[in-house]
């Protein structure tokens, strides 16, 4: 496990499938915008970029492998940043739809969500009196959506993507997800070093208080010993607060507009790079170097 001595692996998630165009003019929508945001994040110090795509017309989340291909062509032409493709897509997609890009493009890294859960986005509704597109309100208001990740789904993704040499960013939104991962480790379905992305502050998962972070970290240490790279993703206003705690404890951090639109209380981030600049500056203030993509590949044992 990373210690204060090791460099910090920073992941940036430029667009995601949670936030919508009305919420921020900085949210990348087209393949070109998503690719440029990823390149900006890499130039600012991100070793890994976690990618989703959207409909270029109205920005609604889609999972079209052709759009991912367009993004990858630009990113891989301009940087050696580690590519992490989503298999979560959006909770409104089928599992088949969600995994199609990772299966088609065989990235070195893909996200893997370690349990099914309610997915509450409706608390964001009050902040926006109106939306550019009706689908934005419909998706946020949906209180009947379940983010489906059954053991069968997870094992299928592990098989289909793992057989192609893809390794995983294990998204754990609660301690139960850590136990699911431990079960898969015991059964030899996953191999260390595990890249454990602990997610805080999404309604349906665990909270975003220090105690939640400490409990997830301690549980992961008990279950995985030293054989994992711990990373923290704080949703919304908790992003930098939890990110800096993770860095101060020797962990890694994830930022990006997928997880938070903000760069300070009530201040919209002007770009993904702005969040990467802030978290890397915090790391250096804590005397932590920032890991290069090459170092991240070595520590996560990604394929050559
Ligand atoms: C909280 C994040 N949206 C988790 C995520 O990034 C899931 C995925 O893409 O597979
Ligand atoms: Zn994602």
From TrEMBL:
Domain of life of the organism encoding this protein: Bacteria
Keyword Flavoprotein tagged: no
Keywords: Metal-binding, Transferase, Zinc
Pfam families per record: BKACE (PF05853)
Sample GO molecular function, one term: metal ion binding
InterPro entries xrefs: Aldolase_TIM, BKACE
Protein name listed in UniProt: Uncharacterized conserved protein, DUF849 family
Cofactor(s) needed: Zn(2+)
């Amino acid at each position: 496990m990373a210690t204060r001595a090791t460099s910090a692996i920073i992941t940036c998630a430029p667009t995601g499938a949670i936030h919508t165009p009305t919420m921020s003019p900085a949210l990348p929508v087209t393949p070109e915008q998503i690719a440029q945001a990823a390149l900006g994040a890499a130039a600012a110090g991100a070793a890994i970029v976690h990618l989703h795509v959207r409909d270029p017309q109205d920005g609604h989340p889609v999972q079209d492998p052709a759009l991912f291909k367009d993004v990858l062509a630009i990113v891989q032409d301009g940087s050696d940043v580690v590519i992490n493709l989503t298999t979560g897509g959006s909770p409104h997609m089928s599992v088949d739809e969600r995994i199609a890009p990772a299966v088609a493009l065989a990235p070195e890294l893909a996200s893997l969500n370690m349990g099914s859960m309610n997915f509450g986005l409706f608390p964001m509704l009050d902040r926006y009196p109106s939306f550019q597109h009706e689908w934005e309100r419909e998706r946020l208001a949906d209180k009947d959506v379940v983010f489906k990740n059954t053991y069968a789904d997870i094992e299928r993704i592990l098989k289909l993507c793992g057989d192609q040499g893809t390794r995983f960013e294990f998204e754990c939104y609660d301690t139960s997800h850590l136990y699911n991962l431990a079960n898969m480790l015991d059964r030899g379905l996953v191999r260390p070093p595990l890249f454990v992305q602990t997610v805080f502050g999404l309604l349906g998962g665990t909270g975003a208080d220090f105690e939640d972070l400490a409990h997830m970290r301690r549980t992961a240490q008990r279950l995985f010993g030293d054989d994992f790279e711990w990373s923290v993703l704080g949703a919304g206003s908790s992003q930098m607060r939890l990110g800096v705690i993770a860095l101060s404890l020797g962990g890694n951090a994830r930022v990006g507009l997928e997880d938070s639109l903000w760069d300070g209380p009530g201040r919209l981030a002007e770009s993904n790079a702005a969040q990467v600049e802030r978290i890397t500056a915090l790391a250096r203030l804590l005397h932590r170097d920032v890991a290069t993509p090459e170092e991240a590949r070595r520590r996560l044992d990604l394929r050559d």
